[in-house]
Amino acid sequence: MIGLLTLNHYIIMAILDLFNEKGELGEFGFSRQNLRHSSKSPSERLIEQLRTQGIINANVLEVMRTTPRHLFIDEALSSHAYANHPLPIGYGQTISQPYIVARMTEALLSQGKLDNVLEVGTGCGYQTAILAQLVGKVYSVERIKIFSDKARERLNFLGLNNVQLQHSDGHWGWAEQAPYQGIIVTAAPLNVPEALLEQLALGGCLIIPVGQKDKQILLQIIRTRTHYEQYLLGPVNFVPLHKGLK
Ligand code: SAH
User: Fold this and answer.
1) CATH architecture of 93-236
2) Does any ligand 1 atom lie closer than 6 A to the CB of residue 93?
3) How far apart are CA 37 and CA 45, in angstroms?
4) Among 52, 63, 173, 234, which has the highest number of CB atoms less than 10 A from its own CB?
5) CA 13, CA 20: separation in Å to the nearest integer?
6) In contact, 97 and 85? CB cutoff 8 Å
7) Non-local CB neighbours of 51 within 8 Å, separated by 6+ positions
8) Which mutation among 126, 186, 194, 245 tests ligand 1's pocket best, with the greatest number of atoms within 8 A of CB?
């Protein structure tokens, strides 16, 4: 089942890439613009796309340019590592689309510098790696043990040692390390888990997708002295936040 899913994804990605190539050639032919375009590295081209899509935080763009996304995915998919779409990572989960990673990180940082951040849903560890280079300390929880173990290896390899990972259910947050100046959730619950609101520091920022499949919205929630301010960032499509461990 997982193998089949991976293969299907692979074929779809290959077709998407084919369209991209065709589109570029069709539009520019062998013009100077095309030559200039092709001399850029895949990660530079990705950053250009993110800029076009409205990402403006220079630190976020720079960290995404220099972080080797291919190290976080299966070797068989590495030719798609810098394409702007999600990719399968096994167990029916995905590495998020770079645009979504950038958008969520930018929104998380909109309140200024953050000393500590809780991430729910480590997955392959890519978002964790981006955060680790932009904030003081990252705590990340994941319900699938093998993901947590592999992410730890990758983050160690990259020398990102301001990260702590835990194999646990993110519905409960990580109370021992709270309060957090930022919390980012990379799988969608139906409602915002109460524990995450409680573990948010005063002035802290929570970025979270909520809702059923095909009806999800991305929320930014800021904790004030008296209440939680809520902003709608737009429609999204995340895997569900599941209960329990695997
Ligand atoms: N942050 C990842 C996205 C991973 S996809 C990235 O950089 O691409 C979402 C992840 O959330 C999956 O790995 C999934 O196993 C995990 N997840 C789902 N429900 C969870 C829960 N209750 N607690 C912790 N992790 C959970």
Assistant:
1) 3-Layer(aba) Sandwich (3.40)
2) yes
3) 8
4) 173
5) 10
6) yes
7) 61
8) 186
How many C-beta atoms surround the C-beta of residue 225 within 10 A? 6
Between CA 43 and CA 41 the distance in angstroms is: 5
- 125-184 pLDDT per residue, tens: 999 999 999 999 999 999 999 999 999 999 999 999 999 999 999 999 999 999 999 999
Domain with CATH 3.40.50.150 in the chain: 93-236
pTM: 0.87
78 is catalytic: no
C-beta of residue 236 within 8 angstroms of C-beta of residue 216 = yes
Active-site residue among 43, 96, 140, 148?
96
Contact 37, 25 (CB under 8 A): no
Peptide bond between residue 179 and the one before it cis (omega within 30 degrees of 0): yes
- The alpha carbon dihedral of 7, 211, 176, 246 has a sign of negative
